[in-house]
Amino acid sequence: TGGVGFDRYTIYKFMQKDEFLNRYNKKQYKKVIGYAGWAFGKLDHPRGRSELLIWAKGDKSKLVWIEEQITTSADYS
Predict the structure, then answer these.
(1) All residues at 6 or more sequence positions from 66 whose CB lies less than 8 Å from its CB, including other chains
(2) Residue 44 phi/psi, 5° resolution?
(3) How many Å apart are CA 69 and CA 77, to the nearest integer?
């Protein structure tokens, strides 16, 4: 639901492409492609839930909000 990594780029400072390729000895490549995903199943698993609570700084209402987005989605069945 959204662009991969665009929100991270406004928060974090990342190394330049050439620096990244040099660091990992991948100079033969011309591009770096980022891929990200988010599994809603984390909400149903104890470990996933505890990791999300760390992200939410202990605020369980944020997890409730995420669950509401899922259950009120037109795709939810």
Answers:
(1) 40, 43, 52
(2) -95, 0
(3) 13
Q: What is the pLDDT of residue 40?
A: 75
| 40 and 70 Cβ atoms separated by less than 8 Å | yes
Q: Distance (Å, rounded) from C-alpha 38 to C-alpha 54?
A: 16
The overall average pLDDT reported for the chain is 80
- The DSSP line for 1-67 is ---TTHHHHHHS----HHHHHHHTT-TT-S---------GGGGGSHHHHHHHHHHTTT-HHHHHHHH
